[in-house]
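Hello Y.,

Per our agreement to keep a running log of every chain we model this quarter, I'm adding this entry. I've kept the format consistent with earlier entries: sequence first, then predicted structure.
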Amino acid sequence: MKVQYRWDLFCHVVDNLGDIGVTWRLARQLVAEHQQQVRLFLDDFKAFSHICPQVQLRAAEQTLSGVQIVPWARQLQATPGDVVVEMFGCRLTDAFISQLGKAQIKPVWLNLEHLSAETLVDLHHLKPSPQSGGITKYFYYPGFTDKSGGLIREANLIAQRDSWQMQPTAKRIAMRTLGLPPPPDHALIVLLFSYARQRLEGWLHTMATSERPVALWVCPGPVMTAVNAWLDMQLQTGQITSRGSLTIYALPYVAQERFDELLWAADVCIVRGEDSFVRAQWAAKPFIWHIYPQEDSAHDRKLDAFLDRYLADAGTDLRDTMIHFWTAWNRGLDLAPAWLEFVDSLPALQRHALKWSRALQTQTDLASQIVQEVSQLAESRPSLTATR
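Predicted structure for the entry above:
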């Protein structure tokens, strides 16, 4: 019989959607697939509402998808659960940390780090870090190898994706649900969900003058500023406008599970941060990752590490095409030449994306791994009791 623990997940929202996106997926999966009790401490309910519209912004406590959700400040009076998870190194209050040290039954304390393909992930995954109060914190690293903590993947995700893509009308239904007309069947569909970026003019002009119609689905966010500058208008949510062969759709925020459908429907996915980065890989579509920029250029090393892993068995031409466009996007270079090369290679890029996704499916998913690791850590602490 599966052991049930009380989990406390802490999420400090930094980039609006990435941090809470990963946290919310993990919280729901722990409840739905592993029958765990989960309490989520969150500091930005407005950002959360973008991916979970049913959340009540001012509720002192609420339960959604079986997850108890409370404001960040509630940790000042909270008794720690059996498992405490700091998502992405968010800083717990001193009062709560003091409670961890004083607890007669010491919780399992994890710091879930940001995803990386760097070799350091395998070296540091689940390494202990002794803390004051006689408690140890463990660093949990998601990753792409069997020595890492894995990637978030719901048990039925791949089957859902394949079933959805086999339905001829699924794409049209998804767009109508958003209040938007579906693009022409022969259009190239590009999903744009990135951080702010300048120098989009050449790329947009290239799509506008292409022989094949292009549907650009622009998600809400700072990149819309550059799109609007090129259009010389303020495109509002739900609006559509065309320039030559290019039709631009200003998408609304969608619930998290509906975002997967957008990825499945697109021919090219431009994603950002961490949550959509992983979901694009499960979508098995050609994609571009706009990595979160860091002052010390650590993002360049992370980007190179992933490309090395993703393209390890790719041919030279495919590898050069990917690196050319990814580099241009992340360094703010002119995109037009790299885009033409990328589009010409789409059939090969699609085959590679599907092959990569299938290879990742052999890895145990993150939620399953973290539950197993917590159980093992708990068993090594005789004082920790669990409800069976």
